[in-house]
Write a structure and sequence with these properties.
The chain is an alpha+beta fold and about 60 residues long. Helices cover about 30% and strands about 35% of the residues. The protein has helices at about 45-50, 55-64; strands spanning about 5, 10-15, 25, 35-40.
């Protein structure tokens, strides 16, 4: 699977799905971040979502 490397969160796994309608980031059972996005969505949307949602991602990881 393709990945994105982030300085703070490490490796973020990308998962493209024909059923996905939005870009979403979730915490995987192993504690890493996993992003799902539609087939046609460009990768930079995930990078932008990570950039704008850093505080919420920190909270999600702390709860995990």
């Amino acid at each position: 699977m393709p990945t994105i490397n982030d300085d703070e969160f490490g490796v973020i796994t990308l998962r493209r799905s024909a059923k996905a309608t939005h870009v979403r980031i979730r915490v995987a059972p192993d504690g890493r971040l996993r992003a799902s996005l539609p087939l046609y969505a460009p990768t930079f949307l995930v990078k932008r979502l990570v950039k704008t949602s850093r505080e919420q991602l920190r909270v999600m990881l702390a709860e995990q």
